[in-house]
Amino acid sequence: MELAWIWKSIFIVFAGMILLRFAGRKSISQMSVATTVIMISIGTTIVQPIANHAMWIAVGSATMFIISLIIIEYLQLKYDWFEKLMSGRSKVLIENGQINQHNLRSMRMTVDQLEMRLRQNGVSSISDVSTVTLEPNGQIGYELMRHAKPVTIGDLERILGLKFESTPDQSTLFQEVKSNQHASSIDPKLQ
After folding, report:
1. Residue 102 pLDDT > 90, yes or no?
2. pTM to 2 decimals?
3. Is 93 exposed, middle or buried (0-12, 13-18, 19+ CB in 10 A)?
4. Considering the domain 91-148 in this protein, what is its CATH number?
């Protein structure tokens, strides 16, 4: 029975994966405060059974954490005040090209940190940005000024007066998701 911890470890990993699958598909960067706390709790709980032989209690606790997360997310969908309480709201950091120093300070963010995040998103000048928000998940959202927005194919078609038809027979990544099949099973040329 000395090697029983190996099987327990494997079982706990699979149980954790199944439970986290029920929790949803959010990446770590998109997790809310509640999700982060629950995921840390699950991680701590899942490790415990190997040390103290309480495997079913750990799985039961992890299940309760996931159920709590699902209830919290449901309540956030149902009640706006609960979502605001649990996740917060987006904060405007730049409005009409001007930095909102008050909101920047309340988010404990420096201008240098804001500029770094904008650069990471391909923005090279604050004067090119109309609005920047800090979202509850920590990501920034932004809207470029009209002069800095990229031209789309639709814009070019309108400018040039052209009309092109799309080719629906081409395989795309979105078709894979919609049909629930890998591209190789959709397009025989890819096999």
Report:
1. yes
2. 0.55
3. buried
4. 3.30.240.20
